[in-house]
Amino acid sequence: MRKGAETRERILDQAVRLASRDGLDGLTIGTLSTELGLSKSGLFAHFGSKDELQLQVLQAAVERFEQTVIRPALSAPRGEPRIRAFFENWLVWEDDPSMPGGCLLVAASVELDDRPGPQRDFLSRAHQDRFQFMVKAARLAVEAGHFRSDLDPGQLAFELNAIVLGYHHVQRMLRDARAGDYARAAFERLLAHSRRSSHE
Amino acid sequence: MRKGAETRERILDQAVRLASRDGLDGLTIGTLSTELGLSKSGLFAHFGSKDELQLQVLQAAVERFEQTVIRPALSAPRGEPRIRAFFENWLVWEDDPSMPGGCLLVAASVELDDRPGPQRDFLSRAHQDRFQFMVKAARLAVEAGHFRSDLDPGQLAFELNAIVLGYHHVQRMLRDARAGDYARAAFERLLAHSRRSSHE
DNA sequence: GACGAAATAGAACGATCGTTCGTATAGTTA
DNA sequence: TAACTATACGAACGATCGTTCTATTTCGTC
């Protein structure tokens, strides 16, 4: 019962890596087991089905996101500093070397957005939670007096999310080195607009 | 030579539809031929390889984007009106019923961004062209006096692109009906910031 | 050290993948 | 209409997919 959990983690670690490249469907039990030096059936026994493997891969990715991005942001002071920490950690996350094919949550989101099932349900919930985290962070920033009182927290969450998606695209598809500069400039513009009496 | 081109178009039409759901790899010659009432080998003969099929699917999608979004924008007056037309047509494109799985260019971009090959090369080029189109449109808007002279056209292109990606995500993964409102509000904020002496 | 359980391996399954080949049909041209 | 070519089909290929089964090895506990 000890050993099993260890290998399961080792499997999921490599599975996240592979799925970031090839997608959740492109992720294959055969290649995954080969790369890990395991037998196909031995690996399979840990999950019982490919659906379950995909689900656990998604869960692993979400857990890591919370650990890498959410938690550090929560330990920053409420208001603008927290939002800033969240954003910067998110950018770091997007280039995490443990996902050489780019953020798995982005890849899986595009892959699953129109395919009903438990994988989509789980991922959708995770994205909603992340969105609500940003909404709440924006509200706290308003309460702290950092942001203007008529700011729409949902709008800020949308734009924050959009900036990171834009970064992902320009960085990975266009391979434009200015991706980070663009993203940070957009973020600063968003912050400036969100602060008290920004322009009217 | 006549008949062949017709069926080829019919194949590509359905292929774009299927690939928008299942991705370019998920697109399968077997299911594609079945849905069209063709034999696998008969369909295959039109392309010679799956790689070539994928490439032509991408080309078909890019051509349609140019026809649906780029060309109408070009027939709008230079400057802000053109950018506005481009953006609105882009949003319409994102919900085009001929791609029930969402914009193929977004899906393929995430799928191919880390897989070298002619498909990625072609798609990357298409995205660069689209980006440059936005850059040029922004420059024209500056020249027309609609936008401030110190505006960074690349930055505007980045943010425009980001807004649409955010729309795609919130609309399709979160299934939030406010996606359009969010996107348009972000767009108006971007325009306001880009106009002459917006806030300083 | 022996025993029961957990973990892994190996072989095989039907299904489907992309692809090839030979053949028949359909369409175009002379 | 005859000849020719483009188009489509059907069967089969080896490879790989997820999955199932049985057997073997490894582990934790008494």
Architecture overview:
The structure is a homodimer of 200-residue chains. The first copy, chain A, is an all-alpha fold. Chain A has helices at residues 2-26, 29-36, 40-45, 50-74, 80-94, 104-112, 118-143, 153-172, 179-194. The first copy, chain A, contains 9 helices and no strands. The termini of chain A are far apart. The mean pLDDT of chain A is 96. At the A-B interface, α1, α6, α7, α8 and α9 of A face α1, α6, α7, α8 and α9 of B. Chain A binds a DNA duplex (30 and 30 nucleotides) through residues 1-4, 7, 28-30, 38-46, 48-50.
Short précis:
Two copies of one chain form a homodimer. Chain A has 200 residues and is mostly helical.
Order of helices and strands of chain A: HHHHHHHHH
Mean pLDDT of chain A: 96
Which word captures the global form of chain A?
elongated
Helical content band of chain A: over 70%
The gyration radius over C-alpha positions of chain A equals 19 Å
Keyword list:
homodimer; 200 residues; 9 helices; DNA-binding
